[in-house]
Amino acid sequence: MKTPPKPGDFQRPILPGKGKTDYERYLRTDDLLSLQKPKDKRNHAEEHTFQIVHQSSELLLRGAENELERAIDLLGKNELQPAARLIRRANHYLDLTISAMAILDGLTPYDYHVIRAGLGHGSGLQSPGFLAMLHIGPQLGEAFFGLLKKQKLTLDQLYRKHDKYFALHEIAELLVDFDQRVQTFRFLHLKLAQRIIGGNVIGTGGNPVDILRQRQEHALFKELWDVRNRITEAVAAQTGEDESLGHGRD
Ligand code: HEM
Fold first, then answer.
1. Residue at 213 is within a domain
2. I want to staple 162 with a disulfide (CB 3.0 to 4.6 A). Which of 75, 92, 169, 230 is the partner?
3. Could you tell me the distance, in angstroms and rounded to a whole number, from the CA of residue 41 to the centre of ligand 1?
4. What is the pLDDT of residue 1?
């Protein structure tokens, strides 16, 4: 009979790699936690916070990219529910990226300028994670609209008969969730930049901060926003209401 393991046995690492424990070896915490400047190399005590938020965001966005790549693959095979699960997860990753920015809201402008002096020409416009979102968004859109085409459905029909095409409608709405998150990221990031360095200055990448405001208005899936206008117009035409009155009709 096999001898049962002793409590001490579980303390000994069995995985290969650096680190005292299997936890550290598996997660490579030594490497991960050596990616921030050590205390004596920081331009400012706040630089640690700045680096942690940025690095975490890159990791979270990498997570989102990975799920979206898998989702696109599944959409190509018409596996809608598994794809939905992954797009939902990618959206959770984006939520975390968005909320992480609030940690930096409290950086004071003077403290930040000390950190900023060490950024070179580094700019968020070069963020591999965010660029990946901008790159994968259209691919996700193509996969979704490809499915609509295969089913010979227009977007308007999909929204009108959302019960009948529940799974596909769910994908459409998850795409809107994704787009909304990208726009929310841009909006809150714009506010972050405005409150720390101001809205009328030039960024470290050589661009006026105002380009952030212009980019914030960009939608990845314009058609999915536009269909709402047509629905409101169609409902107004049926009921004889003036749709320009909006929410407070009376
Ligand atoms: C102190 C905080 C921050 C400031 C003052 C700031 C400032 C700026 C500025 C001025 C730009 C315009 C381009 C340029 O650099 O010339 C920019 C772009 C950008 N930054 Fe930041 N940023 C901050 C934090 C962050 C964080 C935490 C992230 C997370 C990844 C981030 C991601 C980006 C992205 C993705 C862009 C391009 C935006 C777009 O495509 O619309 N930034 N940032």
1. yes
2. 169
3. 23
4. 67
